[in-house]
Amino acid sequence: MAQSELADKGRPEKVTELPVKGFDHVELYVGNALQAAYYYQHGFGFDLVAFRGLETGERDKVSYVLKQQNVTLVITGSLKPDTEITEHISLHGDGVKTIALQVQDASAAFSTVIGRGAKIAIPYGEHTDENGLFRQGSIHTYGSTIHTFVERHAYKGAFAPTFKTRKKSLGKPIGLLAIDHIVGNVEVGKLPDWIDFYRRVFGFRIYQEFDAKDISTQYSALISAVMTNENTSIKLPINEPAEGLRKSQIQEYLDYYQEPGVQHIAISTANIIDTVKELRNRGIKFLTVPKSYYEALPERVGKIDENIDDLAVLGILVDREAGGYLLQIFTKPVQDRPTLFFEIIQRKGATGFGKGNFKALFEAIENEQAHRGNL
User: Fold this and answer.
1) Mean pLDDT of the region 233-250
2) What topology is assigned to 22-169 in CATH?
3) Domain 176-372, second-level architecture
4) What is the mean pLDDT of the segment spanning 141-169?
5) What percent of the chain has pLDDT over 70?
6) What is the pTM of this model?
7) From edge to edge, which strands make up the β-sheet containing 205-210?
8) Measured in Å, how far apart are the chain's first and last C-alpha atoms?
9) Scanning 18, 21, 131, 269, which has its CA 20 to 30 A from the CA of 363?
């Protein structure tokens, strides 16, 4: 489908944008929350700031709240064999359950999206404890993923009611600053439906879109659109597989995750070289690109502040746009299934998503798919 067709298909009348401050947190459902929290704390440098479990009166699940600057991850596991969490993990493996969005008025936000056709996942509720008032409600999105609207300006606790502040367990931060964007994968032919969903329910717009010619190799391709709000504090790229000679990375994800879901979380840093050096020192594995990529880099991106040899050693990609350039790198999957991974990104004036790197990135992913026998 051409970009113009993608943008125009099913275009609804423009609706008022839902006011969203930014990403509040991302919750992952995992098979062993204690061990996963340790991995993110010691591998990615998150601080453990809050906890919910048997010791706090929670009988069914356990959650660890990890924080680094403006990035908050909630790692949740089940304490019983017959919960929604265990069903989710059995079907998907470890993965993202919740993309939480911070709002000024959760009641108004929730009422608005339900009125526009969103389906309730968790009813709106108001919760109080000694730390104040906390409001939230959740809706369904693609697959089993939900969006939770969080209002926390009247709440002074470490995270939310039922969570208890932990004596801060430092993870030795590595310079992660904020969530830049969160990418979802959906089935063939479903991308226009989700573009319509975010336009109609959230009042979001297409920020950037890519067709199969933009994101392809000789073997596979995908189609993508980035949904955003007016001030771009929320950026939600959505991918669907496109026809190719072999299996697309998106289709591989769908095969192993068993349905649509979050493919990767991109986190910004102010110094990607230092951040990636430390991540590698801690054992985090990244995709690799061929040396030929760096031989052609000076001509393609022009003058940059960083030493290209340093970038080549670490495997960091560079792309230039009209407003500047960006640097990015992608981890290998962070669980057993080839599903969720992370992107580390540093922006130096560029606001896009590294279109010039798509071919090199796809080839690196296909190399990993070949090793797994899934290309």
Assistant:
1) 85
2) 2,3-Dihydroxybiphenyl 1,2-Dioxygenase; domain 1 (3.10.180)
3) Roll (3.10)
4) 93
5) 90
6) 0.93
7) 205-210, 221-228, 235-242, 176-185, 261-269, 341-348, 324-330, 317-321
8) 23
9) 269
